[in-house]
Fold this protein.
Amino acid sequence: MSILSLLGKPLVWGAAAAAVLLLEQTGHLGAVMQQVGLGSPAHAAVAGDPAQDRIAQAERDAQSTLPRFVAELTRGGQAWDLNAVRVRVGSGDVWIENIALIGNDMLRGMPSAGQEGLPNAPMQVAMADVIDWAFVKNGQGYGYYTVHASLEALPPAQAAVARSFLADRPLPQGW
């Protein structure tokens, strides 16, 4: 489900939640991250850069908690408003929404709206290629490890919008 279809539902969305979802799901937040030097660590030009190190650690944290996310997802996603994973594709990365588990180690979903160069068709990806995961429940964004890690590099206004949407911690209480 794309942000545009979510906004058309009778959900109570604050402007901040809608804005950060739109930035993230359409790749604009990624573009800002690239402008300030926070691309994927796979593309890092400078080893040991603190900003790149934060992103790399965020990707490792997302990968280590991915099995829990998938377990919760297969239990029905606890009535989540949105679920997505971010995967490496070629020289970049892409968010894929409406995730379903295929077998033991593959995920299937649709590319998020607004991501250029991708077909509007289901994609199947290996769990090993996931660099972030996310879900939205009751207007709060969980997961989004790479977004949490990039907050310091965002302009203050954009960081404030992101913080107002993101849960305090990537993992929900009780996970």
Residues 3-165 form one domain. Strands lie at 82-89, 92-102, 106-111, 123-126, 130-137, 140-143. Residues 1-22, 31-46 have pLDDT under 50 and may be disordered. The longest strand covers residues 92-102.
